[in-house]
Amino acid sequence: MAKKTWTLTDVENDVYVEDLSILPSHVGGSATDYSVRKRTLRGGLRDGVDVVEGVAGACRLTLIPTRGMGIWRAWVGDVPIGWQSPIRGPVHPRYVPLADPGGLGWLDGFDELLVRCGLESNGAPDFDTAGRLRYPLHGRIANRPAHKLDVTVDGDTGEIAVTGHVDESRFHFQKLRLTSTVTVRPGAPMVRVDDQVTNLSGDPAAMQLLYHVNFGAPVLDAGARLILPAKSIAPRDLVAAEHMDHWDQYAPPQPKFTEQVSFFELLADRNGMTRTVLRNAAGTLGISLVFSTKELPCFTQWKNTPAAADGYVTGLEPGTNFPNARSFEASQGRVVPLAPGQAATFHLQLEVHTDAPQVAAAEQAVAQLQAGKKAVVLDRPQRGWSPDA
Fold this sequence. Notes:
Layout: E1 3-10, E2 15-16, E3 20-22, H1 24-27, E4 34-40, E5 50-56, E6 59-64, E7 70-76, E8 79-81, E9 114-119, E10 126-127, E11 133-135, E12 148-154, E13 160-169, E14 175-185, E15 188-199, E16 205-215, E17 225-227, E18 230-235, H2 238-241, E19 260-266, E20 273-279, E21 286-292, E22 298-304, E23 313-319, H3 326-331, E24 336-338, E25 343-353, H4 356-370, E26 376-377
């Protein structure tokens, strides 16, 4: 078997590779339609950000180990997957003021296709009784760099696997480690994410994780739809409550749009696996998220469709909890307890559907999960799901 691994970063052993290209000739084996490049970006807010660019057949993606192993952009052929943020990223964490007193500093770096929210908290800013910030918006893991980074290439299949280790720890407090492997291979227009969160402490810990997966044009357009197997749906707040009769539909860009957030309990197969599909109005381009409701039992839809210049985007967000303030979610039992040394695993697959038959097949897979069960669509925030109830 022709398989090789390169270590690009290993802080403990003082290893750091500034620039590296990996081609089939460096690996051996029969696969030829792939390549990997690691480089460090220079200039502006991205100065010093490490990226790993993988090409596997028609699929290309850019990983950002400097930003918590997020996925910045992806393409299938000439079709971009992601969104156009008004932020000129990827932004180095040094320019993201997580300690901003209002708790919203995380937004200064937000422009990824996939960004993890967590690990100690993953929702809205949380303040103590004196008004001091306890947990910033969406947590800290997305602004922590990987301290170890490896790339493994299978020369027989062309599969590329990038593994990073990212710590979120503080003396006297929690000590959590994210170990993430992102995988692509030729002939499969999809990205697989396999994560493990480990409690490194000798004391018990509690964690939260949410995958903030974000899409803009061309899959998001006027008339785009979100198709998913829902057991129940509820608005987060009164703004979203006004629009629950068309929660699954997207409008064209509208200046001064106010974000709308809905919470979902999804149906799944006997193994706990579920699928959500976002497709364009024509039904010719779509993206599925495939994941386990046993690992990620809560699902959130974020609609943010202002003028394109302000970030026309929707977020599809499987998580261990809803992205409310951590204190509220903890009061509802939506945290993952970890004993000393214990780990929790999470898996997410992004599948891109590039023609009408593929989109139709993905929609049919959702219909099979729905299996004739009627979703309960609630018209007001629900007690236990939303602090606004």
